């Protein structure tokens, strides 16, 4: 009788991730087949021999992906054994493992994308993992849930998928988003030698159109700042988060949510952008302190703002919920002010850059102020700027309010 089970081997180093593997038993013979996945001891139920997923954990998405992939692998091992038995072929463990490895080498798109997603989640690159998850979900709907071998992906499949996206009523940039991420996965498989490059995306519409301008004028920023929202605490909170982002040269909401108290020392705020890991330094101004005074986290919290309240819960989920709430109230404010385009947190970043440009601040200073590390044009002119120059530029803008 053949059995295949998922097993966990702890690391010899305390606190490090251990490895998952498949234990195969056939006629008293035992073999082990490794997997690329690693988990912590607290994520494994040693009594029931299974993965434990805490929904509030930041690693829940990664563990769910691991669970899906390992379950699929065990099903494949059992199907291989059943097939060999039906064909009255050799059903030794060596033959089962050989066929399993052969099938894994001819890996399918869905399985490979799950592995890519799991890797990003494990590395803490949740946003990237989520973009690939969205792409997999979209392509899965196009395929009706039917997987496809990487080697079968050709220009006809890609053209059919693009047509499906267009008939779904999606914008050109959204279509480009899905196609580019699907292409990135395919190219990764090519780099790993899992498939020969047939260049199936050579005719795909992966270029993006210019997005609608989201920058607000200085006059509009002043109107937002002057709003009397004393009896509307949620709108006031949303407005203040918008202004804090503007005051700090367009800081993204994820960076605001995860600011730590230790990041603020005297008159200097120093933090790393979640998106690029680039360290930015901002001179702490009175207008920033006024907002912090209203929404500072409690003494027991390591965070600067009270955007993440449950320290033992899923921090990313709390940040996303807070961002949705803030953007919803900002859109209401925008409608009340008669703005043509939706008012969102991201408008603060565009507005700072636009107003800085209008005030004659050099493009290189603006680029550094925003924390762009891939602005090739501005990097040609100047690779790095003094923090004092950027702070002076920021003060010049703040004094205009």
Give a short account of the largest sheet: 3 strands, antiparallel
Number of strands: 8
- By CATH, the architecture of the largest domain is named Orthogonal Bundle
Q: What's the Cα radius of gyration?
A: 26 Å
CATH superfamily of the largest domain: Intergrase catalytic core
Helix content: 40-55%
* Sheet/helix structural class: mainly alpha
CATH topology of the largest domain: hpI Integrase, Chain A
Low-confidence stretches: 375-385
Task: Tell me the name of the CATH class of the largest domain.
Answer: Mainly Alpha
How large is the count of helical segments?
15
**How are strands sequenced across the largest beta sheet?**
1-2-3
The fraction of residues assigned to DSSP E strands is 5-15%
Sequence of secondary-structure elements: EEEEEHHHHHHHHHEEEHHHHHH
| Rough outline | elongated
* Mean pLDDT over all positions: 86
Could you tell me how far the N terminus lies from the C terminus, measured between alpha carbons in angstroms?
77 Å
Integer tally of domains? 3
List keywords for this structure.
15 helices, single chain, three-stranded antiparallel β-sheet, 401 residues, mainly alpha, hpI Integrase, Chain A
Written description of the protein model:
This protein is mainly α and 401 residues long. It has three domains: 1-105, no CATH class; 107-211, DNA polymerase, domain 1 (Orthogonal Bundle); 218-398, Intergrase catalytic core (hpI Integrase, Chain A, Orthogonal Bundle), CATH 1.10.443.10. It has 15 helices and eight strands. It has helices spanning 60-86, 93-105, 109-122, 126-142, 155-167, 172-191, 218-226, 233-247, 253-257, 286-295, 315-336, 346-358, 363-370, 376-381, 387-398; strands at 2-9, 18-26, 29-39, 44-45, 50-51, 264-265, 268-272, 279-283. It has a three-stranded antiparallel β-sheet with strand order 1-2-3, with helices on one face. Strands 6-7-8 form a three-stranded antiparallel β-sheet. Strands 4-5 form a two-stranded antiparallel sheet. The chain is elongated, with a radius of gyration of 26 Å. Mean pLDDT is 86; it is low at 375-385.
């Amino acid at each position: 009788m053949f059995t295949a089970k998922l097993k966990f081997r702890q690391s010899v180093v305390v606190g490090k991730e251990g490895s998952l593997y498949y234990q195969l038993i056939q006629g008293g013979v035992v073999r082990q087949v490794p997997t690329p996945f690693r988990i912590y001891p607290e994520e494994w139920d040693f009594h029931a021999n299974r993965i434990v997923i805490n929904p509030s954990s930041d690693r829940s998405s990664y563990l769910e992906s691991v669970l899906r992939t390992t379950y699929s692998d065990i099903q494949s091992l059992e199907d291989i054994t059943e097939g060999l038995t039906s064909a009255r072929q050799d059903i030794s463990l060596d033959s089962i493992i050989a066929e399993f490895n052969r099938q894994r080498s001819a890996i399918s798109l869905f399985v490979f994308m799950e592995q890519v997603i799991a890797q990003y989640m494990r590395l803490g690159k949740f946003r990237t993992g989520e973009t690939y998850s969205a792409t997999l979900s979209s392509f899965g709907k196009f395929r009706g849930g039917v997987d496809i071998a990487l080697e079968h992906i050709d220009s006809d499949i890609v053209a059919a998928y693009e047509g499906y996206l267009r008939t779904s009523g999606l914008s050109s940039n959204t279509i480009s988003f899905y196609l580019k991420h699907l292409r990135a996965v395919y190219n990764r498989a090519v780099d790993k030698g899992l498939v020969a490059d047939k260049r199936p995306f050579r005719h795909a519409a992966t270029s993006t159109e210019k997005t609608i301008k989201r920058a607000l004028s200085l006059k509009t920023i002043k109107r937002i700042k002057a709003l009397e929202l004393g009896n509307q605490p949620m709108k006031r909170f949303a407005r203040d988060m918008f202004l804090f982002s503007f005051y700090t040269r367009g800081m993204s909401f994820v960076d605001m949510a995860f600011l730590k108290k230790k990041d603020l020392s005297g008159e200097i705020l120093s933090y790393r952008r979640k998106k690029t890991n680039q360290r930015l330094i901002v001179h702490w101004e009175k207008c920033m302190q006024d907002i912090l005074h209203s929404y500072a986290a409690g003494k027991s919290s390591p965070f600067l703002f009270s955007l993440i309240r449950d320290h033992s819960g899923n921090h990313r989920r709390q940040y996303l919920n807070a961002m949705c709430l803030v953007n919803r109230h900002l859109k209401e404010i925008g409608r009340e002010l008669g703005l043509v385009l939706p008012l969102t947190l991201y408008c603060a970043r565009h507005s700072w850059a636009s107003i800085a440009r209008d005030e004659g601040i050099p493009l290189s200073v603006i680029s550094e102020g925003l924390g762009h590390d891939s602005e090739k044009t501005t990097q040609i002119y100047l690779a790095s700027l003094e923090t004092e120059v950027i702070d002076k530029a920021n003060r010049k803008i703040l004094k205009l309010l």
